[in-house]
Amino acid sequence: MIEIRNLTVAFGGVRGLNDLSADIGAKITGLVGPNGAGKTTLLNAMSGFVRCATGTVSVDGVDLLRIAMNRRAAFGVRRTFQTEQVVENLTVWNNVAAALDNLPTGGRARRDLITEALDYVGLGRQAERIGATLNASERRLVEIARCIIAKPRLVMMDEPGAGLSQSESDHLRDVIVGIPEFCGAQVLLVDHDVDLISATCQETLVLDFGSKIAFGVTAEVLKDPKVRAAYLGTIEDVAA
Amino acid sequence: MPNLGPFVVSGLSTGAVYVLAGVGLVVLYRASGVLNLAQGALGALCALLAWQIADSGGPEWVGWIAGIVVATVLALFYGRIIAPRLAHSDPIVRAVATLGFALVVLGFCEFIWGEWPRSLRLPTDTIGFEVIGVRVTATRAIAFCLGVAVTLGMVVFLNRSRLGLSMRALANDREISGLIGVPVLRVDAWAWAISGVLAGVSGIFLANMVRLQAIPLTYMVVPAVAAAILGRLTSLLAVVVGGLAIGVLEAVATPFPGVSAVRSAAPFVFAVGALLWYQRGGLMLSRIDQFRSIPASFEAVGSLWRQLRGGILLALIVAIALPQLTSAYWLKASTSVIIVALCSLSVALLYAQLGMVSLCQYALFGVGGWVALRLFHAFHLPFELNILAAGLAASIFGVIFGLPALRMRGLYFALITLMIAGAFQIIINATSFPDGGPGLSGKVYAGVRQFMPHPPLAPSDAAYFRYVVVVVAIGFALTMLIERTRVGRAWALIRRSEPVAVAMGVNIVAYKVIAFAIAGFLAGVSGALMAGSIGQLDGRAFPASESIMLFALTVIGGAFHWSGPIFAGLLLRAVPGLLTDWHIDGNLAIMVFGAGLLHALITAPQGISGQVVGLGRMLSAKLSAVMPRAMERKL
């Protein structure tokens, strides 16, 4: 359960997030909005990369903003970035091991944890390949393996589906859908691909100019005229 | 209390010249993103040309103009031809590349004019007037007025003119500026031209006020960089305050016996203070995915044995065969090559693992050598213990040296280590590097210097060579082992991107400290080995230029493979001997190394070792195609 209360992030005079409140309880929640709406800013605030002017975020009842940013991964908050961030001179196995190095193993063998994560995303047979030789889809899967290892609470993904082929997208969608069952974490998914969002997310939060304009069951939210207006503009806008 | 008036006045005028140079640095950095560390070298070239023309009987003003024109043309040449090739690189790489340019210019100056100190007299030296009871020469008055006027002019220029507006746009975002129609290259060229003119003018003034010698003038970029750091490389007014303050502090310390000798470390003090102040807010992460220019290693961190077996074989062959084959002179030189290779490994570790540029590793080498010598003379410890102690001491210094820039972006680390290298040289000169006397602090005032003998395990030069090979091989193996632990993986994440590393739970500061400590340890051990080879060390053996050369040659040799530092050692310690044998001026080698650094950064980031390893791979692939069976069995 993620409770966001009155969260405001200010960049000078611009508000990246404006008094945002939301209780995110679904297993997989979509986060959508036009460019500049504050989606990545919300992820960065949760990672600790930007300072929040006001507000709180609690994850499973713990005040997230009080945790030092390099301890949030061990606490259970993981994320991927818009651009892929696989270490190119480490093997797939070591990319995941590098993440596990800073996480509690819960008394389980490292080897088992890594194997499970790689098998889950479908890279079990690719463990010894070098990061530099992976294609875009494989890189995304390595990143997801790094996020789902060792008991995460919340996995945040920033546009994981960008630039993938249809079959790769299908595999990615299956992987994302299965994350809550695989490791018990909630997923927060930022993407522009409405098909991916509708296929994976039970609930969706829509931001525009840093404010919440809709939040609820995905299918209903996507039909909301306000959401359509934010994405497509409105008749009134054109007339005016 | 001595009368400080004259010192304040002379300090203000010297400081004003630092301001001139600093303004050139900042204007260029803001517009083009390049911190031009060759600015001092360009100033030196300009001053030497001016001197040459006047000395050959030409009119003085022709000399000044010719010098400034040449400095400007060279700056333009670099800015238009070479800098664009690195336009998408990390600011550290772009700054370090200008060191290559500086080496080329410096090598040229030394080749033509040599090291004799000259003086550049200006006609305004003889005109003077009194200000509050202090005599001021017109030169100094002009320098001061020019420093202030140029800064104010630049502020107005950047804020009021169309070109200034374009420069500010470039400073904000080059690509977007280009998209909205700012002529990026032309604006860039103007910034280079302005910095070239300022480099030339400040070179002439400094040659007049300080001395006309290529190396010190090249290092005059350091106070300018310090002034620029004070303004976070962006604020011109902070440069004025910083430059003047550094000039005055240096001058005012002159009449005080205790601090007079170390007063040239003033820029360093200012820069460290400024950096500590700026990072009071906590960790400053580099932007995610901003640059991808410090390349990753070309091979996976794989099986240690597979990567090391070639090296171990080579070490064995060299250790056994080389002492049988070479003369005593070349045996000594080979020992130095191996020792310097270990020091180069410490540079390579920081560069290849973390993307950090350390320009002070040779100072740490000096710390190690000094500690080993003193401990031997004071306590007659076994050599092996001395080596360890030297490594530990240097690793502590390495961490201390890294601290000021620990939470800042990599460029500041490179700059601060450059200043440390300079300050270290100054402090060593000031304390006259205690060596040769008995006891811990042992200075030798009169009489014979005491030598440290080779360790009892390896009494002869041949045995000591083998000893060094073994110690250095252990150093390489341990380093490569560490790269395969969680420490190495954390370094890999940090180099990939600091935000990613943080998001994955890496404590960036802690892992950087570990890297500084290990790199310091390696440098310290190599210094101790050098002390054991020569038996004594000379304070003059650790100039800042050696640290810069070590970095340049490590990049040229290749930082990403174990063979790279060995190539660096060969270039640094075997090539000069060969050149002497062939009667070639060593300054030509400096020019070639400078060009080599540029070449490596622009087109061959894996260095010589990358080329050699690539060639080896290609050959073995060809071979295995020809006789697949034999190769399969071998692998």
Descriptive key words:
heterodimer; A: 240 residues; alpha/beta; six-stranded mixed beta sheet; four-stranded antiparallel beta sheet; 10 helices; 38% helix; globular; B: 635 residues; mainly alpha; ABC transporter involved in vitamin B12 uptake, BtuC; 27 helices
The helix content of chain B, as a percent range, equals over 70%
Number of structural domains of chain B: 3
Amount of beta strand of chain A: 25-35%
Q: Which CATH-level-2 architecture of chain A?
A: 3-Layer(aba) Sandwich
CATH topology of the largest domain in chain B: ABC transporter involved in vitamin B12 uptake, BtuC
Polypeptide structure, described:
The complex is a heterodimer of chains A (240) and B (635). With 240 residues, chain A is an alpha/beta fold. Chain A has a single domain (2-84, 152-239), classed as Rossmann fold (3-Layer(aba) Sandwich), CATH 3.40.50.300. Chain A has helices at residues 39-47, 72-75, 92-100, 110-121, 136-148, 166-183, 194-200, 218-223, 225-232, 235-239, and strands at residues 2-11, 14-24, 28-32, 54-59, 62-63, 77-79, 154-158, 186-190, 203-208, 211-217. In chain A, strand 9 and strand 10 form a beta hairpin. In chain A, helix 3 (92-100) crosses helix 4 (110-121) and helix 5 (136-148) runs parallel beside helix 6 (166-183). The N and C termini of chain A lie far apart (43 Å). Chain B is mainly α. Chain B has 3 domains: 5-254, ABC transporter involved in vitamin B12 uptake, BtuC; 329-541, no CATH class; 610-635. In chain B, helix 10 (221-230) packs across helix 18 (410-431). Residues 288-293 of chain B have low confidence and may be disordered. Chain B is built from 27 helices and 2 strands. Classes of the chains: A alpha/beta (240), B mainly alpha (635). The A-B interface holds A 47-49, 69-74, 78-79, 81, 83, 85-91, 94, 97-99, 101-103, 130-132, 146 and B 285, 288-289, 296-302, 486, 489-490, 492-493, 495-497, 499-500, 502-508.
